[in-house]
Design brief:
The chain is mainly beta. The protein has one domain: OB fold (Dihydrolipoamide Acetyltransferase, E2P) (Beta Barrel), CATH 2.40.50. Helix content is about 10%, strand content about 45%. The protein is built from 3 helices and 12 strands. It has helices at about 65, 120, 140-145; strands at about 1-5, 10-15, 20-25, 30-35, 50-55, 55-65, 80-85, 90-95, 95-105, 110, 125-130, 135-140. The strands form 2 sheets. It has a 7-stranded mixed β-sheet, with no helix packed on it. A 5-stranded mixed β-sheet has the order 4-7-8-6-5. It starts with a strand and ends in a 9-residue tail after the last helix.
Length: about 160
């Protein structure tokens, strides 16, 4: 189940969604922002919370709780924005809290466990074992594909 990561090391920007510690490669992160007002888009896919005007650039905001099938954010709490650069445009991931940038060495890298719920497992590229918890590395390509796929919203 575990394989040795042969790279010299990668840096991951981390954040929390619910109790999960998630990470994406630092090179994909454009910026991190406090809550931004959003414009709701009628008939948008389930995970699309709205659109953000980021200094004249219109950015889709994806609710990571919806994407991962987690309960709604507690009333009165506002998400943070992790703006990532995809192939075509910038996308904001709405997360609960921002973590640190973590550098991994040629550490043990694991595949997602079989008991991870299916909707989460397909979005997790792998896992790094940290001293006190697991860091789930997101597959951002799959995340963006699922977020805009109407089929993925039927169960929502």
């Amino acid at each position: 189940m575990f394989a040795r990561d042969n790279s010299e090391g990668k840096q991951f920007s981390t954040f929390r969604v619910g109790t999960l510690l998630l990470g994406i490669e630092v090179v994909t992160v454009q910026e991190v922002l406090r809550y931004q007002e959003m414009t709701v888009v009628p008939l948008a896919p389930y995970a699309v919370e709205g659109l953000i005007n980021l200094r004249g650039q219109i950015v889709i905001a994806l609710d990571m709780r919806k994407s991962l099938g987690l309960p709604r954010r507690p009333v009165g709490t506002r998400p943070m924005n992790v703006v990532i650069q995809s192939q075509d445009a910038s996308v904001s991931l709405l997360v609960d809290d921002i973590g640190d940038v973590i550098e991994t060495s040629a550490a043990v890298f694991g595949l997602p466990p079989d008991n991870l719920p299916a909707n989460q497992k397909e979005l997790v590229a792998g896992i790094y074992t940290l001293p006190h918890e697991l860091l789930l590395i997101l597959n951002t390509e799959r995340l963006l594909l699922n977020a805009c796929n109407p089929i993925s919203q039927i169960s929502a």
